[in-house]
Specification:
globular; 13% strand; 92 residues; 4 helices; two-stranded antiparallel ribbon; single chain; alpha+beta; Arc Repressor Mutant, subunit A
Length: 92
């Protein structure tokens, strides 16, 4: 059985899309929405927070993530790139 491997760009897109759709999302919601295991997701979230693409906030003792303006711009650019690739019969 052949398993399709997602590109890093596709994973980042899925994470950003999930967080943006939720408005603010806890890590478990992002885990399910992006189909990523906790350990890999946690390091990616830390990287995206470090690059100001996501922001970590705390509310009633729970951690949530929100997409920053920079993250929104990145998601828009990834979507445009994805559209161009699909027109060429390729995918990310």
């Amino acid at each position: 059985m052949h398993r399709k491997v997602r590109s890093r760009l596709s994973i980042i897109r899925d994470v950003l899309k999930c967080v943006k759709d939720e408005g603010k999302a806890p890590i478990t919601r992002i885990m399910y929405g992006s189909r990523m295991p906790y350990d890999r997701l946690e390091s990616l979230l830390n990287e995206l927070v470090g690059k100001s693409i996501l922001k970590r906030i705390e509310n009633n003792g729970r951690k949530y993530y929100i997409v920053t303006e920079r993250g929104s711009k990145l998601l828009n650019e990834i979507e445009k790139f994805k559209d161009v690739l699909e027109e060429l019969g390729l995918e990310i």
